[in-house]
Specification:
The chain is α+β, with helices and mostly antiparallel strands. The protein folds into 3 domains: about 10-200, 2-Layer Sandwich (Heat Shock Protein 90); about 210-330, Ribosomal Protein S5, domain 2 (2-Layer Sandwich); about 440-610, MutL, C-terminal domain, regulatory subdomain (Ribosomal Protein S8, Chain: A, domain 1, 2-Layer Sandwich), CATH 3.30.1370. It is built from 16 helices and 22 strands. It is extended, with a radius of gyration of 38 Å.
Length: about 625
């Protein structure tokens, strides 16, 4: 029998490794940004075209590489970060596996330009699909520039799996946020299709958070500081009233490396126990510093998962430190639930003795002194005489009045009388009352009778279907009615969220929104669709942004359909809302007037039927 095991060629092995390391343009961005940080760069620039599908370029002013190192950096398992297996447990750098550049070069066109500070000339290398096309001497500034063009050009199947530019750009932005938040001492900038999206100067951690997520974020942050022998916690958590329905503002950094840890996330949620509404998530930007020997970050190729030696201790410290910060800034209730912070003794007076107030009484004070006594009729022996002076021109008081004889000539037929208010009797009349056909069950379901049995409708899903079809009709016909606001409504969003609003602006205008200004972090609305309360506008837009971030299926999605689904989800009657009989009947009649009454916009069942036979079987 012939041998069947054989060694794979290098280019095939590199493509297999690329499947683990490079999943989308955001993966390339992450690897290149981390390499620039390891090169001790103080300024890093990220340039994108078509969300990274056409070009991902990272330029840094780091220490650069020699000609030999530049060529060797594209070989598999070639790294300057570790030399032995023991170094894996003392890592202070980002990259150490030596697979990133080799994997990227296997599925893209890569151009590298680099120069060290003391060299006069730099090195330029051009690689296509793991094949080195050229290596030349070039003039380039100090640092390194890596350009990755035409991602997955030799793997069309992988390229077809990429989502739309909007979705891919969102993933790239998330990676940019993670890296820039972990290193506020480094300046970052990001450009997409020639326009600047972020320009972050080197600053402290709070300023970096505010510069990324908007100036309004500053008032939402609560500082967290805790130093122990095992763990050092620093950063910020968000106030409970500013919690979100999405987890877009949750960041854990362990030794300046972004990680995902459901276990530690549970510790944060436990600290917020009782402070958040159902379905809402807190915001946090926390830096955890631990001994590198107590963690293992080599359990996943993307290095976003981490393993701790003593997770239970970290859980307890993190939970208590966040809870302490919330209580310290009067955000969470303290032990004395009836205390008022405004009545606490000021710090400057805490050591001063209290003084008993004194009351001074003026015994000679007479409140009636100087008051003239009014004579009364009881003083019969000294009754004063009053003379009443008639008013001037008293003769003219009765001029113009008609005589009594003319009163009989008034025409009473022209007089109108107020109708008496009709009041219903408190007793039941003998007339046959209209039979009730619907009623509400647990403030969630509307139950109605039909010929074959009983109909049970989920009020939230049914109303979503009703609103969805109405909104979709308005969007497609572009005939939505707008309600003008007396005072413009100003809303604040981060730059990345505003980019989504700008992309959907035309569809939002067809739905009835009127925007007067969309600029940096500010959105001014002067008109809203009829039926949308002014207080619900921010909720509708936040839900829409969340849906665009998470629920967009592919490149061919309909913005109108997505907008109609998102607005229907935000405006629909919620579970727990009491409906009167007229509203219940309206839900039933409107639902069965829809084209697809059986499912909600998210393809969930809106109603079920119980036939008489099904009910009778229950009694057998």
């Amino acid at each position: 029998m012939s041998d069947i095991i054989q060694l794979l060629p290098d280019h095939v092995a590199n493509q297999i490794a690329a499947g683990e390391v490079v999943q989308r343009p955001a993966s390339v961005v992450k690897e290149l940004l981390e390499n620039a940080i390891d090169a001790d760069a103080s300024e890093i620039k990220l340039i994108l075209k078509e969300a990274g599908k056409t070009l991902v370029q990272v330029i840094d002013n780091g220490k650069g590489m020699s000609a030999t190192d530049a060529r060797l950096s594209f070989e598999r398992h070639a790294t300057s970060k570790i030399k032995s297996a023991e170094d894996l447990f003392q890592l202070n750098t980002k990259g150490f596996r030596g697979e990133a550049l080799a994997s990227i070069a296997a599925i893209a066109h890569v151009e590298l330009k680099t120069k060290q500070e003391n060299d006069e000339l730099g090195t330029s290398i051009l690689i296509e699909g793991s094949t080195v096309k050229s290596q030349d001497v070039t003039v380039t500034p100090k640092g390194t520039s890596v350009s990755v063009k035409n991602l997955f050009f030799n793997i069309p199947a992988r390229r077809n799996f990429l989502k739309s530019n909007t979705v891919e750009l969102r993933h790239v932005t998330d990676e940019f946020h993670r890296v820039s938040l972990a290193h506020p001492n480094i300046g970052f900038s990001m450009y997409h299709n020639g326009s600047e999206m972020f320009s972050l100067q080197a600053s402290n951690y709070r300023q970096r958070v505010v510069n990324i997520f908007g100036t309004k974020t500053n008032e939402k942050l609560v500082p967290v500081e805790e130093v122990t022998e095992v763990l050092t916690v620093s950063g910020f958590v968000g106030k409970p009233e500013f919690s979100k329905k999405t987890k877009s503002e949750q960041f854990f950094f362990v030794n300046n490396r972004f990680v995902k840890s459901p276990y530690l996330n549970h510790a944060i949620n436990a600290a917020y126990d009782g402070l958040l509404k159902d379905g809402y998530h807190p915001s946090y930007f926390l830096n955890l510093t631990v001994n590198p020997k107590t963690i293992d970050i080599n359990i996943h190729p993307t290095k976003t998962e981490i393993k701790f030696d003593d997770e239970h201790t970290l859980y307890a410290i993190l939970r208590s430190s966040v809870k302490h910060s919330l209580g310290q800034f009067n955000i969470a209730p303290v032990l004395d639930f009836n205390s008022d912070a405004n009545l606490d003794t000021p710090y400057n007076y805490k050591d001063k003795a209290s003084q008993t107030p004194t009351i001074e009484v003026n015994s000679t004070f007479n409140p009636f002194a100087g008051e003239q006594r009014t004579p009364s009729y009881s003083d019969s022996h000294n009754r004063p005489s009053y003379s009443k002076t008639p008013p001037a021109n008293w003769e003219g008081l009765y001029v113009g009045l008609e005589s009594k004889s003319n009163a009989s000539q008034i025409d009473f037929s022209e007089l109108t009388f107020e109708t008496e208010a009709k009041t219903s009797s408190i007793f039941k009349s003998d007339a046959v009352t209209q039979r009730k056909t619907t009623y509400q069950l647990r403030q969630k379901y509307v139950v109605s009778t039909i010929k074959s049995g009983m109909l049970i409708i989920d009020q939230n899903r049914a109303h979503q279907r009703i609103l969805y079809e109405n909104l979709l009709e308005q969007l497609t016909s572009k005939e939505a009615t707008t309600q003008q606001l007396l005072f413009p409504l100003q809303l604040s969003f981060s730059n990345s969220d505003l980019e989504i609003v700008k992309q959907l602006k035309s569809d939002l205008e067809y739905a009835g929104f009127v925007f007067s200004e969309v600029n940096n972090e500010q959105l001014t609305i002067t008109g809203i669709p009829v039926g949308v309360p002014e207080s619900e506008v921010s909720i509708v837009l936040e839900q829409l942004i969340s849906d665009v971030e998470n629920d967009v299926p592919d490149q061919n999605f309909s913005a109108s359909d997505l907008l109609a689904k998102s607005m229907a989800k935000s405006l629909a009657i919620k579970t727990g809302q009491t409906l009167n009989e007229e509203e219940q009947e309206h839900i039933v009649n409107s639902l069965f007037a829809c084209k697809e009454p059986s499912v909600s916009p998210t393809n969930k069942t809106t109603f079920i039927t119980l036939s008489v036979d099904d009910i009778e079987k229950k009694f057998m």
